[in-house]
Write a structure and sequence with these properties.
Layout: H1 2-15, E1 33-38, E2 43-51, E3 59-64, E4 74-78, E5 95-100, E6 106-113, E7 120-125, E8 137-140, E9 153-156, E10 162-164, E11 178-179, E12 181-183, E13 192-198
Antiparallel strand pairs: 1-2, 1-4, 1-13, 2-3, 3-7, 3-11, 4-5, 5-8, 6-7, 7-12, 8-9, 10-12
Length: 212
């Protein structure tokens, strides 16, 4: 009798949304537009039409404290558009691109030193969502799918660094914004959580997708 009860409990847990490989109701999906919070420093991933004065000279990526800044929205896309169809839950380990909504540039990193901490520079690169292979990151999370309440890491495929913030602050013209960079090791500086946004609902019918 006890063995049967244990078996029934196990089956119930496996059938619960988000377990046993099934995405939960809070799954982050392809095509969603969202803000990403660095959980250690409580700032959101941000970009704007301000270029680095050193390094690559590309569009800068920073962290901002404000929760209502429209320049902090990023669209989730696949390594190519065929691998991340609109409304499909993003799997842990999946390769994605993060495209900055207001400028159309992709989150990018390369072998340039970051201006403040001398880690690896993170920039926004490309035009209209098209850049190069250095725009691709993998989502590192503990389950099967990326859930909104999860703290996740983003590891860069081309250079093996983790998207990070360690607290260094810029002066003029982006005073108070934090440096975003790539670090070689996983640690508490590179955890991120999905926050505000428009999340595309998963659907059994790929032709039907609603927005929250």
């Amino acid at each position: 009798m006890r063995r049967r009860c244990c078996l029934l409990l196990l089956l119930a847990l496996l059938c619960e949304p988000g377990r046993g490989g099934e995405p939960g109701p809070g799954a982050v999906t392809c095509g969603s537009v969202l803000k990403l919070l660095n959980t250690r420093h409580n700032v959101r991933l941000h970009s704007h039409e301000v270029k680095y004065g050193s390094g690559s000279g590309q569009q800068s990526v920073t962290g901002v404290e404000a929760s209502d800044d429209a320049n902090s929205y990023w669209r989730i896309r696949g390594k190519n558009d065929d691998t991340c169809q609109r409304g499909t839950p993003v799997k842990c380990g999946q390769a994605i691109r993060l495209t900055h909504v207001n400028t159309g540039k992709n989150l990018h990193t390369h072998h340039f030193p970051s201006p403040l901490s001398n880690n690896q520079e993170v920039s926004a690169f490309g035009d209209d969502g098209e850049g190069d292979d250095l725009d691709i990151w993998t989502v590192q999370c503990s389950g099967t799918h990326w859930e909104r309440e999860d703290s996740v890491r983003f590891k860069h495929i081309g250079t093996d660094v983790f998207l990070s913030i360690t607290g260094e602050q810029y002066g003029h013209p982006i005073r108070g914004q934090r440096e975003v960079h790539g670090m070689n090791s996983p640690n508490h500086h590179n955890y991120w959580m999905a926050m505000e946004g428009v999340f595309i609902k998963p659907s059994m019918d790929p032709a039907k997708h609603d927005e929250l």
